[in-house]
């Protein structure tokens, strides 16, 4: 990767032998495993000291022209690399590439202090009744309220607000301008810039004489190893908790309403909106701009397609899409039927 300004430290040269060990990749018997790489890049741009990967067959034509020092690749495509590029053969090249990136660029794994702060910035406001373990970084302008607890190794970004009695575990990163109230946060959680956690859910008793606000007295519980993208909002529960399960990854600009329960290792893509009291099972996924109405149950491993309008429960393992959403196989059959009708009518008109 070439740039006049690069925001992560150039890694020390890494022998291909080390990369093979990290990833479990297989190498040709005559490969020069003492050869080193000191960067990464896409197949088309990687230089002779860089590592590349191929995970999508759409880019397979680029293999023949790459000048990368080595490439993480499946056995199917390994023979298409030029002789100057060492194939590192593995079953999941993208996952292997992630392992290498984590080793070579550890600082990119989670947000750090934007000010180079060590300990507490003098301009941060930390209440006397807050409890911070050793090795907590608090950037300029951050506010930490009474009774808040923050574990060691955590970073509180510039102008972030941590409300009263909020609990944050160890090795967490709370991004600039994030706000957390009424929340319990586990270990190794990443909340990116502008995240809003624990504000009121949208609860009103509607009526002809006006809409009465319903007090929201629940919490947000975020379990270990969750990552939440920039400007996402997660409302606290009304009378029970909003829960984000262990290992779940949430994209930017997602809205999660009160009482929602998201299972472990779910993936929620940008601009998804999940209405109140809906439950997602473990490893469930939603595509971009999916809209889920309230009080639904999305089964374990189920997938909801991009721009879906979901108004029904989804059984475990099923894929639903469309608006209103339905099983993908039914949607495809309907579209095929409509295309046949259009072609038939076109022939009649001609």
From TrEMBL:
Source organism, top-level taxon: Bacteria
Top-rank EC class of the record's enzyme: transferase
EC number: 2.3.1.191
GO terms of biological process kind: lipid A biosynthetic process
Catalytic site positions: 258 (proton acceptor)
Family: Belongs to the transferase hexapeptide repeat family. LpxD subfamily.
Protein name: UDP-3-O-acylglucosamine N-acyltransferase
Protein source organism: Lichenifustis flavocetrariae
Gene from which this protein is expressed: lpxD
